Each structure stands twice: as structure tokens, then as C-alpha cells.
Amino acid sequence: MYSGLLIILLPLIVGYLIPVKKSSLLHVINRLLSWMVYVILFIMGISLAFLDNLSTNLVLIFKYAGAFFLCIFIVNVVALWLLERRKPWKTTHKQESLPSRLNMALDSLKLCGVVVAGFLLGLTQWHWLTFASQASEAALIFLLALVGMQLRNSSMTLRQIILNRRGMLVAAVVAVSSLAGGALAAVMLGLPLNTGLAIASGYGWYSLSGIVLTDSFGPVIGSAAFFNDLARELVAIMLIPTLVRTSRSSALGLCGATSMDFTLPVLQRSGGLDMVPPAVVHGFLLSLLAPVLMAFFSA
Fold this sequence. Notes:
Layout: H1 3-16, H2 23-49, H3 54-86, H4 101-122, H5 132-152, H6 158-163, H7 165-189, H8 193-200, H9 206-217, H10 219-246, H11 248-253, H12 264-271, H13 276-298
């Protein structure tokens, strides 16, 4: 029962305990992390090709992903809108010109291409590809250790996290409302509640949720989690410039864990420099919560 929990938490904790002083080594860790994401998603695509009743399962994947995305997105939007009404986030910032949102969306879609490439290779049914599940587990352990090191050396101190109330408040609303949306989707689809909560716990971190949930629930649920979280990021990129004018909390909250990295430049240009500290804290907290909650609900 607890083996899945240990596989996720142990390397994460070990990685977090390793201090990295040299900036050159940190750069190597960041590069390795980027490459490991591609490697694991490629392996996930291979595992997908070995599913029984493949065509039926592909329909299930997109059915689950669509239902979870809609439920979580709607509940998030309502909860964040209520937060903005009760505690307005005011600013005098004037919006800057933004980079091409289409190009940023295409960068995210490259990850889908990696999964598709692995899937096409898996269709060859070569015997050595049957070891994909063992390879994904080893790669996952290495990835989580790297994530732990990255979090340890992200320059965020406990004092900075505690002092930024807006980032913490939005993160708390997103964390709870996402779980509510996941539970609703699970009930609608007839899935176990813990499965719905595990999918909702990805908080937009598609490169991790797909891997962890494939290992715990199989390729169908893992792939659905991946596409659900990827859709969250793509929609956030498109909506941030519009939402930031009327509901800054919604613009931040819809980014999920990616507000600390991928969507941070869009948030900064759209909402100003005062958007950066809460965005980093928000993304940092959700990045810490995501693997822990996914492990808990998977176990």
C-alpha cells in the first residue's frame, strides 16, 4: 500500500536535502530535469501503445481528460472569482505588450509530440519495449530527486513564503477547489474518489502527474492526467492577458503550479512586477503539494 508513496516521497526528500552551491551545477540540474521530462513522456507513450483494446482506451483517455478539465476549470474559476470579490487585488500597473501566445502554446504542444512519438514506436510491439514500465519507474525516481534539488535551491525562503499572503491565499483556494472539481468529475464518470482526487492533485504540473499516475493507476489514467494538466496550461496562457484586467486572482490561480516557471513571464508582463512574488509563492506551494497529494491519494 505504501510502496507508491515511498517511491514518490523518498527521492523527493533526498533531493531536497542535497544543497547545491555552484550555479554551473544548478544549470546542469535544470537541463537534466528538462531532458528527463521528455524521456519519461516518451516512455509513457510507449506504455500507452501496449494497452489492451487500444482504440477503446484512447476514447476513454480523452473522455476522462475532457471531463476532469471542465470540472476543475469551472470550480477553480468560480472559487477564484469569489475570492476576488471578497478580497480585491488592486494595482496601478499598465499592461505591457506580450510575446506570441501561439508560440508559447506550441512549446507546450511539443510535449504531446513526444508522447505521440513514443506511442508510434510502441506500436511496433518490439519485445524490448515491454520493459518500458520498469524504465519509467527508474526515470521517475531520478526525476523526483532532481525536482527536490531544484526546490531546495529555488531561492525561496520560509520567511518569503509566509509573508506573501496573496500567493498563499490563491494557492489555498486553487488547491481546495481543484480537489472539489476532481471529486465532481470522478462522481460523474463513475471513477473511485481517490482516483479523481489524485488526478486533480496535479495542479497543472503535467510532466509529473502523467508519470506518477501512470505508475499508480495505469496508462489510461496517467495519460488523462497529462492531457488535463496540459490543457490547463494552454488555457491559462490564452486567458491571462484578459483576466488580469478584471480578476488578478483568477489570472494567477488558473496557472496552477506553472506560475513559478512557464507562465511566470506572461503573468509579469500582463500584471506587472508586483505579480511576481505571489506567482512564485503560489507555484512553489502547489509544486510542493502536488507530489505529496498525488502520492497520498494513489496510496
